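Researcher: Please predict.
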Amino acid sequence: MEQKQKKILGGAAVALCACYLGGAAFFAGHTYPNTTVDGKDASLLSYTRAQALITAAATEGSLGIRVKDLSYSLHRKDVLGVESRDNWKEALSEGSSFAWPLALFRRHELLSKRTLDVHREEVEKHLEEQGLFELSLPAKDATLSEFSEDAGYSIVPAETGWSANKDEILNLVEQALVSDRTELDLTDTFAVQPAVQTDDAALTEKMNARNLLVRHNFTFFIGPVTQQLDSATLNSWLVETREGATGLDYASIEAYVNGLQDRFTPSLASLSAENGGENYIVDSELTMQILCNKLGINRPARETDAQRRTREAANAKILKQAKRAAKREKNKEKAEQILREAEAKQTPAPELIATLKSEEERAADAENPILIAKLRDGIFIENLPDEAAAEPDLATPSETVRVETVGSDTITIGAAPAESETVESLNPEGQSSEAAESTEPSREAPKSLNGEVVMAKDDIFVPVLAADPEFQLGHGLTYIDISIEKQRVILFENGRKVMESACVTGTPNRERATHYGSFRINYKQRNRILRGSQKLYEAFVSYWMPFDGGIGLHDATWRGSFGGNIYKSNGSHGCINLPPAFAKQLYERVTVGMPVYVH
């Protein structure tokens, strides 16, 4: 019995030893249970199979490459290999295999320390086929949108571009493959920034300027009849100055305002019929002032003939000097450079572009008295008879109309205005009592609207004048009109012709011609001796009213007749010769600063 037990124990020991040794031999070439290699389950695998698993795991899946909304991909098995190793046991074993009984109950997280081999030529080939290397996206600057009648202008956001060379792309792709990344976004890495960003200050300023200029829908009133100037029309007038400032084409504004006379012809004809055939015209000059005020724009100054001649002469002098210098220059390139520089120095003609005023100026304009319309039956008549009668320097109904004859010409002195008419007053808010009950602005001028009304934001009561046919707009209601062609002088007061006479202007030659243009009376002087340059002449005058340097209006006692074609052969030295009686009456009515229009 005892012998039998010894045999059993010896057999068990041999079996255990054999099992232990067998396990040690097995795990000398296999992985332990609960083993992961590079995160993959590799339990109880031979080192050869584990190596195959490592290689397969390293090359499975793909790398996705993104550029903005474009996608490209590389299958890892097509472009990767795992570098072969002589002994994987070192990487896959964990201590001595004789400790396997203890290792069975532990987790084994191993790293293969494998080396990936990126086949750069294959990567290049696959990405070349997909077109990544040819990809080039230009950056898009932020711009202004197309005009919308509802929203005006807005900013179209900027877009980044993209550009990279082949080697830069391949280097980053190789790094991503070796790092086992599954996604590679190259959008920001090779982004090309636009020159004009969405928040660009200059672009924002231009957008705001355009919207300030075009986001209006003006309604022009003459009584119940209206005309519209909409935002689309204003937008068609948008232009930019040479310096890039935003403005409106002034000639287009003028053309529109000047066209109101024709657009309102039926209304003006009805007004004339209601007032005994009186001639009514649209005061385009005041209308321009009102419209420009509401648009918040500066009115550009036109170049006078004298300014144009001076500018052209200066430009010609610069070119002449440059041509002489270029002719002396032996080097052809330097000679051409001299001429180009001379061209760059040329002073261009002024631009007729109406640009925005400053914010402070626009705020001040909102309080301008020209926005107050004095209405009679819903019509803005500037020179209402009752106003004319109230002016102290105008002819009154009690004034006698006198006629003088000078030579063969007739002079009219004094003119009685039409009878005055009382207008209904409005409440302090500038609205009629009916209009004051509604908070909504009226789009139609009721015929009963009378008195002073402050024009609403986009409403314009068109000013009209009861004027004589010879009256010309652009010089105010009171001015002196001198016609060289007709040899006539007319004094208009409040749009009415109150004095008229024949005259003699300067002899039409270079030295003695009377200058055309708009001027103002500089001062008034009694009993003056006029002397010509180099003492060519000397003349005593009783009434001297200069308006263009040494040229002015004055009496000419030495002349027996005026008007006709006298000026062509026996004209003055530039002054306006007048009959003495007319000169005396004109002197009494003329004020310093009064406009003078010579045409």
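Model: Residues 387-442 have pLDDT under 50 and may be disordered.
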